[in-house]
């Protein structure tokens, strides 16, 4: 995906300095810009750690939707279940996929009972359909909500019980059905991740289910599907991808493999997200955002995330709001919080976003300036996309802060935040973001 002329060591990772890509067919994947004068930050490498990297089989490129049928056949499908949502049905993509499945000799059971921020009872209902229809392979066509719902159905099909029983890490004991994921948005990364995020309607919060078994067997990324996204969803999922890249890069669980994908994702979002809003039918920009979402997903499923996601899950569960929009509000504040004790890790992030000028390699003051620039750049992008400036504008009140903070502390994503955070810290972050 990347054409490399030279590399620069940046922290514990390597930034690829790319030449202009040569056209490949009709839809070349463009490499993000490398601003003039980009300099390396100070090297702080130590003994390399063991790095484990979970990844499904991936097929990427315009026009790849039809390959989902072949993937289902290879995985042994006889009665596949296609999980999608009403919006995708109206756009016509599930109909196209069903035609491809029929050509492969498969008749799919279509279930579209998913709403944004999938609910525990929706997953239970989908599991009933899966069981009653005698389904086997699960094919999901949609955004993060559809894909998470499909994972939840697969989890229940293999393990039984209620979806809320599996909150936490590696709680499922038995194998689950094969899964083929076809993302229709450019940001969630759910199609390659080991995460399943579900709304617990009894507690009005989102729960995080994490486990290697949830990594799909196949991800098929067709940028053509992105062209039917409404603008608000394009903005929200793009900000989600940016948050994935930034939080994965500074995560305690990062490694050189995840660093590469995280920085690539950050640079691609910084260069192409706004263009997809202005030119929604432009294939090159859409393809770059599809790549950004994919690379961000590969980064965060292996490095995990941080405080922005841990906090966002609680707000989304309470108010049933778009996850990426909440991230766009919270992320600048979390960047400042995490950079305060040691800003150096944020220099490559600022560079990937296009930081002008040079940073002295061993300058803490320069690194702090870069981190602040990154926070301001994230806010600038959010402003351009029409994201509210504070949580108060989307319905969060001062009275919500203690409960939201308590639930944040129990979120698995907080465990890999680069800076320790207690109840007082999280409450202060929420209040700053109001």
Quick recap:
The protein has 434 residues and is α/β, with parallel strands linked by helices.
What do these coordinates show?
A six-stranded parallel β-sheet has the order 3-11-8-6-4-5, sandwiched between helices. The chain has a three-stranded mixed β-sheet with strand order 7-10-9. Strands 1-2 form a two-stranded antiparallel sheet. The chain starts with a strand and ends with a helix. The chain has two domains: 4-50 and 237-433, Dehydroquinate synthase-like - alpha domain (Dehydroquinate synthase-like, alpha domain, Up-down Bundle); 62-228, Rossmann fold. Residues 1-45 have low confidence and may be disordered. It has 434 residues and is of the alpha/beta class. The protein has helices at residues 67-74, 86-91, 93-103, 120-132, 144-159, 231-250, 256-278, 283-303, 307-319, 323-339, 347-352, 364-384, 401-409, 423-433; strands at 4-10, 13-18, 57-60, 81-83, 109-111, 138-142, 168-169, 179-183, 195-200, 205-210, 218-221. Helix 1 packs across helix 3, helix 6 (231-250) runs antiparallel to helix 7 and helix 9 (307-319) crosses helix 13. The longest helix has 23 residues, at 256-278.
List keywords for this structure.
disordered N terminus, 45% helix, single chain, Rossmann fold, Dehydroquinate synthase-like, alpha domain, alpha/beta, 434 residues, 3-stranded mixed sheet, 6-stranded parallel sheet
> How would you describe the shape?
globular
Q: Which stretches are low in confidence, meaning pLDDT under 50 for 5 or more residues running? A: 1-45
CATH homology-level superfamily of the largest domain: Dehydroquinate synthase-like - alpha domain
Question: pLDDT average, as an integer?
Answer: 89
Q: Classify the secondary structure makeup into a structural class.
A: alpha/beta
Give the SSE string. Answer: EEEHEHHEHEHEEEEEHHHHHHHHH
Q: Helical residue percent?
A: 40-55%
Tell me the name of the CATH class of the largest domain: Mainly Alpha
Give the CATH architecture of the largest domain: Up-down Bundle
Distance between the termini: 39 Å
Number of separate helices: 14
User: Beta-strand level of the residues, as a percent range?
Assistant: 5-15%
Give the strand order, joined by hyphens, for the main sheet. 3-11-8-6-4-5
Query: Strand tally, please?
Result: 11
**Number of separate structural domains:** 2
Enter the CATH topology name of the largest domain: Dehydroquinate synthase-like, alpha domain
Largest sheet: 6 strands, parallel
Gyration radius, rounded: 21 Å
Organism: Actinomycetospora aeridis
Protein name: Iron-containing alcohol dehydrogenase
EC number: 1.1.1.1
Family: Belongs to the iron-containing alcohol dehydrogenase family.
């Amino acid at each position: 995906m990347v054409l490399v002329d030279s590399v620069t060591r940046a922290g514990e990772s390597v930034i690829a300095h790319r030449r202009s890509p040569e056209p490949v067919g009709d839809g070349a994947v463009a490499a993000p810009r490398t601003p003039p004068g980009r300099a390396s930050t100070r090297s702080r490498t130590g003994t390399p750690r063991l790095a484990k990297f979970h990844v499904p089989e991936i097929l990427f490129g315009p026009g790849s939707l039809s390959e989902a049928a072949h993937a289902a056949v290879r995985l042994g499908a006889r009665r596949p279940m296609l999980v999608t949502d009403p919006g995708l049905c109206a756009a016509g993509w599930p109909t196209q996929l069903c035609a491809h499945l029929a050509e492969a000799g498969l008749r799919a059971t279509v279930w579209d009972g998913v709403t944004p921020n999938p609910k525990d009872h929706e997953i239970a209902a989908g599991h009933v359909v899966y069981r009653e229809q005698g389904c086997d392979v699960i094919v999901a066509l949609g955004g993060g909500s559809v894909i998470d719902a499909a994972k939840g159905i697969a989890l229940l099909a293999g393990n039984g019980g209620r979806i809320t029983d599996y909150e936490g890490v590696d709680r499922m004991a038995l194998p689950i059905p094969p899964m083929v994921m076809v993302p229709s948005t450019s940001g969630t990364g759910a199609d390659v991740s080991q995460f399943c995020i579900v709304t617990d309607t009894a507690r009005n919060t989102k729960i995080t289910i994490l486990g290697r078994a949830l990594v799909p067997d196949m991800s098929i990324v067709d940028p053509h599907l992105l062209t039917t996204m409404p603008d608000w969803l394009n903005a929200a999922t793009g900000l989600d991808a940016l948050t994935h890249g930034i939080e994965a890069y500074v995560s305690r669980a990062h490694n050189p493999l995840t660093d590469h994908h995280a920085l690539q994702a950050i640079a691609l979002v910084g260069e192409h997200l706004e263009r997809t809003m202005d030119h929604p039918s432009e294939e090159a920009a859409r393809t770059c955002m599809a790549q950004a979402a994919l690379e961000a997903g590969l980064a965060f499923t292996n490095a995990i995330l941080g405080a922005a996601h841990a906090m966002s899950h609680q707000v989304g569960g309470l108010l049933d709001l778009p996850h990426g929009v909440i991230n766009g509000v919270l992320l600048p504040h979390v960047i400042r919080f995490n950079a305060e004790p040691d800003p150096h890790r944020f220099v490559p992030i600022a560079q990937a976003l296009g930081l002008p000028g040079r940073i002295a390699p061993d300058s803490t003051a320069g690194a702090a300036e870069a981190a602040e620039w990154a926070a301001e750049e994230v806010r600038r992008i959010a402003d351009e996309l029409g994201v509210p400036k504070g949580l108060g504008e989307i319905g969060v009140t001062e009275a919500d802060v203690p409960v939201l903070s308590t639930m944040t502390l129990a979120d698995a994503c907080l465990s890999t935040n680069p800076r320790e955070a207690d109840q007082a810290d999280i409450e202060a972050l929420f209040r700053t973001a109001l």
